[in-house]
Amino acid sequence: MSRYLVDKFLYTIDRDPELVERYRAEPGRTVSWWEAEQAGRILNCPDAEATTWLTFTDAERGALAGHDYVALFELGAHPFLTLTLFIAMFERDYAEPLAFQREYAARLQHWQLPYPDIAT
Amino acid sequence: MATVAAVIASTHHPFFHRASTASGADRPPFADEWVAKIAAFRQTLTRARPDVLVMVGSDHFHQLWLDNMPQFLVGKAPHYDANYYNEEREFGLPRMLLPGCEDLSAHLLRGGLDAGFDLAFSNELRVDHSITCPIITLRPEADLPIVPVYTNIFAPPLPQPRRFVQLGKAIRELVESWPGQQRVAIIGTGHLSLELGGPRQFGPHGPDPDFDRRAVEWIASGDLSAALGEVTLDSLWEPGNATHGFMDFLLMMGAAGENVKADYSDSLDLFHTMEAYFTWYPEGVPAA
Q: Chain-centre distance of CA A7, in angstroms?
């Protein structure tokens, strides 16, 4: 399990307008590119000082490549990060204000407390 | 020594700016009532005639990240740029530049460290909506120097609730020991019950109106023993998965003082989460 890396993906995509659009349009290719070239970047270090051991599990890779926010919730991705990025990608596809956010909640209705652990 | 001109605690609702500036069909039906409540709340700071603002909030995974996460951090810089691309995108918040008060930052850091709080610091801090929302609601001129204080209510493991109370008490004492004649308002924002990215998000009210009622009563009456008797890191998941932001209210209760009733309290039941506003005047209520 590499919950931290899933959060790092969501965080680094969400803060970059070009990557938000790229992840919306080509999720599988964006996840593959990011895991190969970006996953090891330490955000406050030069690129040569990258981390060498970070990889997704198959379940994490699949959830990200499938835009599957329910699976991400169940894997313990930080819910604020998932929500913020997915609003940026998909709110535009809904005519009514907050319709995407409400559908998101509805698709998680099978969950009751305790929710999956989000500690990293 | 400096004077604590006011202690102010509130929720920080990132949708206020957009709701208050929208017109025509875009203006939500609750906007006028919300704007009126904010105008009244703003007066409580204006009447205190502050010179400097200590601003307690929490970074929402903007500058602070999981590879290097402080629990409590004090900004020490002459200026603070503010708001981020994803806050412009989702909430329509403007980019801002806020002046800093490095002298009070240094005083809080030195005194806080000596009092047993291992505070992190930042000399280049870009603050987010946890600090700009109360600037927009309480001091939209954004003209007063600030000292940002960030708390971790977001990325477990979190400090215990009592630690937030202790830090609030310490900030109050440190402001009161700051040499000079400045009038300082201590302002902090947090959350009542709140769910983000979970099944209870974006409902017609906050996810736990009963918690909200009790929390407002604890804050308004300064009832720290009741609040700390009920609130734990585990229990805060129950009212909503982002309700750990309530610990910033606990910090402000520590700053206001145990069993000290708020001189002003108000709330507004909105979709998604309840708004609540509190002001204490340690010197007594100023004339209108």
A: 6
Q: Which domain holds residue A20?
A: 3-107
ipTM > 0.85 for the complex: yes
**Residue A76 counted as domain residue:** yes
For tokens 């999720």, the residue is A27
Structural domain includes residue B45: yes
pLDDT at residue A92 is higher than 90: yes
Q: Does A114 touch chain B (CB under 8 A)?
A: yes
Q: Is residue A115 part of a domain?
A: no
Residue of B nearest to A41 (CA): B67
Q: B279 exposed, middle or buried (CB, 10 Å; 0-12, 13-18, 19+)? A: buried
Amino acid at residue number B155: A
If we measure between CA atoms, which residue out of B81, B80, B69, B92 comes closest to residue B16? B92
Average pLDDT of chain A is: 97
Contact with chain B for residue A60, Cβ under 8 A? no
CB B58 within 8 A of CB B154: yes
| Count of domains observed in chain B | 1
* Structural domain boundaries, residue B21: 3-280
Q: What is the pTM of this model?
A: 0.97
B184-231 pLDDT, tens digit each:
999 999 999 999 999 999 999 999 999 999 999 999 999 999 999 999
CA angle B231, B135, B78 (to 5 degrees): 105
CATH number at residue B101: 3.40.830.10
Q: What is the pLDDT of residue A1?
A: 66
Query: How many helices (H) and strands (E) are present in chain A, helices listed first?
Result: 7, 0
